[in-house]
Amino acid sequence: MAGRLRELLQDLPPENRATLQYLLRHLRRIVEVEQDNKMTPGNLGIVFGPTLLRPRPTEATVSLSSLVDYPHQARVVETLIAHYGLIFEEEPEDVPGGQVRVVAGLNRGPAPRALVSAGWSGGASEASFKQRTDGGGA
């Protein structure tokens, strides 16, 4: 399933893919401390699945098909989080001297447009971005 999701995500516009990757990277960080916050990939899938993967459009406001889609949406987001490294595979890059360097996929392109408009350029650390956007953390 993770391999198929990787293929499907290649069809997204680069900006959308970068934004999704950034969000999923953050959700991975949340899972790293699940002992403290109880947020497993499954729990995050339940929370974010309906937001990230909208149900098929219908004429009804809440249709039976959209209710049936919720578990699938949660499972897809859970898989995206749990298999982040495989889906957004870090690709080896050749460097002079025959050595191979791993390049994280998130650093290959510009920051998502929404982050750039908020003042994050990708060059500054996340802590300094948070400090600028939160008013100095006070």
TrEMBL record:
Instruction: Identify the PROSITE patterns for this entry.
Output: RHOGAP (PS50238)
Question: What is a GO molecular function of this protein?
Answer: GTPase activator activity
The Gene Ontology biological process terms listed for this entry are: regulation of small GTPase mediated signal transduction; signal transduction
The segment annotated Disordered runs over 117-138
Database matches in InterPro entries = Rho_GTPase_activation_prot, RhoGAP, RhoGAP_dom
Annotated signal peptide: none
Keyword set for this entry? Answer: GTPase activation
Comp. bias (Basic and acidic residues): 129-138
**Residue spans of biased composition, Low complexity class:** 117-128
Q: Which parts of the sequence belong to the Rho-GAP domain?
A: 1-88
Name-wise, this protein is Rho GTPase-activating protein 45-like
Q: Which organism is it from?
A: Ursus maritimus
> Per UniProt, what is the name of the gene that codes for the protein in this document?
LOC121102590
